Amino acid sequence: MEGRHRQEADRRRRYPGQGAGTQYVTATAEFLGPKQVRLRYADGKPDDIVEAEHVVLATGSLPIEIPGFKVDNKRVLDSTSALDLAAVPKRMVCIGGGIIGLELGQTFQRLGTQLVVLEGLARILNGVDNECADVVARQIKKDGGQIFVNAKAVGWEERNGEAVVKAEVEGKVQEFVTDVILVAVGRRPTTKGFGLEKTGVKVNERGFIPVDQRQQTNVPGIYAVGDVCGQPMLAHKASHEGEVLAEVIAGKKTINDARQIPNVVFTEPEIASSGLTKEEAEAQGRTVNVGKFPFSVLGRAMAIGETAGFVKVITDAADERILGVHIVGPEASDLISEAGLAIEMGAFAEDVALTIHPHPTLSEALMEAAKHALGEAIHIANPRKKAH
Q1: Which of 266, 288, 145, 223 is nearest to 275 (CA)?
Q2: Which of 105, 151, 277, 370 could be cross-linked to 353 through a Cys-Cys bond (beta carbons 3.0 to 4.6 Å apart)?
Q3: In whole angstroms, what is the distance from residue 166 CA to residue 339 CA?
Q4: Considering 5, 240, 357, 359, which one is annotated as catalytic?
Q5: Rounded Cα gap, residues 322 and 327, in angstroms
């Protein structure tokens, strides 16, 4: 009996959904019609044909390939095969200065790899607060890396046992000698190869499956969650959508009405954001106030020797409601949740500023930045008030 209980416990750890009555199978699925799916098994077991009232598409996304850099998992890597390297390469050229490229690139850099980043746009981490991105750029360079912006990789060749990448940088062709090439220019939704066209489900011009607030596609009873139904391509966004959908299928009047989806970049230092950037808020016609508190004057940050970065709070000047928070620095991924709660509940800068935070902690930086946005900071100089 004891052995049986141990086996059951092990089974539930591997497939926790089974405890709730879920049947888990490993198979390749292909639509035969809107509500009919064929399951093919790798072990030679006969195919199954499954029909269901509700079908959920959670097919995720795949790395994008670019011309001239076909992934061979030896010289040219994508974000998946980069994690399977048997040894740390001496040199790496990373094509793409976005989130995935820099997360992986800096990981190898911290292990001793010489890193070169080629970014096609005018700056790295496009879409992230630009001041936060600048802190990461400085760290990459401080650690010996090189960053080239407005750089278009055009091809590579094998030469004397090394890979040589050719790129147009600011209009001039340059060559970069390396051991491996990491292609990290984004991901595309997985909507082909499983018979989606047999369902009538629409796909937009970018390849994503449009859904409404109940995760419903244009075909009743077929839903989509995660990367396949649009940006941002984040695990916690997909998980939330899955929870919403489970309640929808269960008959509850649930919708996906999240005000914010936190974004975390696991670089060195970390970046985390919730809500709008200053530029996004101003593009909406808002006048904003910005509060900013550097980790360099925060006691806990100094104690742990992690003083690079800051917390930035964006508020609506009309009523001081918090519109966005951007953090670059130690434990940013953990600190951002307080900001997410503040935005979800429609909090004002004063709500955070008047909340007593424990000392000495990193979380004090958010309180201090909120006070700075109000012009009430006591540990740094306040912005001058404009004369009326």
Answers
A1: 288
A2: 370
A3: 43
A4: 359
A5: 14
Q: What is the DSSP string of 6-59?
A: HHHHHHHHH-GGGGGT------EEEEEETTEEEEE-TTSPPPEEEE-S-EEE--
Task: Work out the burial of residue 356: count CB atoms within 10 Å of its CB; fewer than 13 is exposed, 13-18 middle, 19 or more buried.
Answer: exposed
In contact, 353 and 374? CB cutoff 8 Å: yes
Angle subtended at Cα 228 by Cα 323 and Cα 252, rounded to the nearest 5 degrees: 70
pLDDT one digit per residue (tens) for the chain, 388 residues: 455 445 555 555 555 566 677 888 999 999 999 999 999 999 989 999 999 999 999 999 999 999 999 999 999 999 999 999 999 999 999 999 999 999 999 999 999 999 999 999 999 999 999 999 999 999 999 999 999 999 999 999 999 999 999 999 998 999 999 999 999 999 999 999 999 999 999 999 999 999 999 999 999 999 999 999 999 999 999 999 999 999 999 999 999 999 999 999 999 999 999 999 999 999 999 999 999 999 999 999 999 999 999 999 999 999 999 999 999 999 999 999 999 999 999 999 999 999 999 999 999 999 999 999 999 999 999 876 654 4
- Sheet strands (E) in 237-378: 263-265, 270-275, 288-294, 310-316, 322-329
Q: Which pair of structure tokens corresponds to residue 107?
A: 């990981």
Contact 103, 83 (CB under 8 A): no
* Contact between residue 201 and residue 217 where contact means Cβ atoms under 8 Å apart: yes
pTM, entire model = 0.90
CB 351 within 8 A of CB 332: no
Q: Is 236 a catalytic residue?
A: no
- Closest to 340 (Cα-Cα) out of 366, 358, 309: 366
Shortest CA distance to 39 belongs to which of 24, 54, 60? 24
Alpha-carbon gap, residue 70 to 76, rounded angstroms:
7
Alpha carbon distance 117, 99 (integer Å): 12
